[in-house]
Amino acid sequence: MRVLGIETTCDETAAAVVAWRPDGRGDILSNIVLSQFAAHAPFGGVVPEIAARAHVEALEQIVDRAMGDAGLDFADLDGVAAAAGPGLIGGVMVGLTAGKAIALAAQKPFSAVNHLEAHALTARLTDGVAFPYLLLLVSGGHTQLIAVRGVGDYARLGTTLDDAVGEAFDKCGKMLGLPWPGGPNIEKTALQGDPRRFDFPRPMMGRPAPDFSLSGLKTSVRQTIEKLSPLSPAVTADVCASFQAAIVDMLIDRTRMAMAVFAIASPGHPVPNALVVAGGVAANGAIRSALQRLSAQSGVKLVLPPPNLCTDNGAMIAWAGIERLRAGLEDGLDFAARPRWPLDPAAPLSPTGKA
Ligand code: KG4
Ligand code: ZN
């Protein structure tokens, strides 16, 4: 089975072709990602209207390149998948409409993919991980711990009550005057700093429900910056290192708690087959190392897809389409774009809607 996947929910215009392999993993035949980084950087964040227009301009070429790299025509495909949400609605409509049009013209089955489900299933594309497993999803828009029990079968164990982790990195980077996005720049600057210089708060640590809260940490970083301003490069590095250390401690504590309560969501299989990490923040070296230590201590295997499959891409959409079509889950061409689309519909709304 070979499926074209289209991703336009945020600031990456992406398309890829993935083939199903008999061993249950995927072969990535092509994977084209165009980042709109330069278009948004002057504004210090993603501007939805600019993103939607940029998707319109780029998508046809990106799909052409993905098909060309795979050496296939639309007629050779077994399905077309497009992310239908959650995300910035203008961009979502661009990719979703393009995917439907290709499916209609080529007379292929269509799959409307939940972007979060695509992140969740990437570890099966790369490593063939068997259900159930624990997913830590940490991106600019989402911070969640999810029990992945099967295709379309998710239980949210924890979520952020305010900011996403990537958002906290980006906001702190902005306060420190670092270039956007803050995440990779804070990581780089932190290498020169002392992680023990500032004892920033680690909200929610030790709480039995594996939820997150980032706003107290953010406020504390802002107050420290205001108190010490103007910051020397050495102090900036210490703030970055201390902030990152607080994030690492919180992520590890909350993930350990999610492992402890995993059985509630999966009584028949109480220990997850793996701890799987996804989202742009998973590119962070300090976080990756800490998760490796947690995995060694807990005996739960860690699956960290390569950074280019942790950040937004078309291959994860194509793979989710393959998994859904193989499960007999085809979608109609009337499927509407969804700005909000929680993976676990039974989970309560988080206060900021970042569920
Ligand atoms: O998954 P992603 O590419 O886009 C979505 O948010 O959907 O994640 C982007 C986020 C940004 O907040 C960025 O600052 C963060 O991931 N990020 C990092 C690193 N690289 C990207 N955060 C911390 N350390 C990094 N090395
Ligand atoms: Zn994403």
In short:
The protein is of the alpha/beta class and 355 residues long.
Topology:
Layout: E1 2-7, E2 12-20, E3 26-35, H1 37-40, H2 48-70, E4 79-85, H3 89-106, E5 110-114, H4 115-127, E6 133-138, E7 143-150, E8 153-159, H5 165-175, H6 182-190, H7 215-228, H8 233-265, E9 275-278, H9 285-298, E10 302-303, H10 307-310, H11 314-326
Parallel strand pairs: 1-4, 4-5, 6-9, 9-10
Antiparallel strand pairs: 1-2, 2-3, 6-7, 7-8
Helix pairs in contact: 2-3, 4-11, 5-6, 5-7, 6-8, 8-9
What would your notes on this structure say?
It contains 11 helices and 10 strands. The strands form 2 sheets. The chain has a 5-stranded mixed β-sheet, with helices on both faces. A 5-stranded mixed β-sheet has the order 8-7-6-9-10, sandwiched between helices. The protein has 2 domains: 2-125 and 308-326, Nucleotidyltransferase, domain 5; 131-307, 2-Layer Sandwich (Nucleotidyltransferase, domain 5), CATH 3.30.420. The protein has helices at residues 37-40, 48-70, 89-106, 115-127, 165-175, 182-190, 215-228, 233-265, 285-298, 307-310, 314-326, and strands at residues 2-7, 12-20, 26-35, 79-85, 110-114, 133-138, 143-150, 153-159, 275-278, 302-303. With 355 residues, it is α/β, with parallel strands linked by helices. Zinc ion binds at residues 115, 119, 139, 312. The site of zinc ion has 4 residues, from helix 4.
Q: Number of helical segments?
A: 11
Low confidence ranges: none
- Describe the biggest sheet? 5 strands, mixed
Bound molecules: 5'-O-[(R)-(carboxyoxy)(hydroxy)phosphoryl]adenosine, zinc ion
Name of the CATH architecture of the largest domain: 2-Layer Sandwich
Span of the ends, CA to CA: 32 Å
| Beta content | 15-25%
How many runs of DSSP E, i.e. beta strands? 10
Mean pLDDT: 96
What is the CATH fold-level name of the largest domain? Nucleotidyltransferase, domain 5
Quickly count the domains.
2
Helix amount, in percent? 40-55%
Which value, in Å, is the CA radius of gyration?
Answer: 20 Å
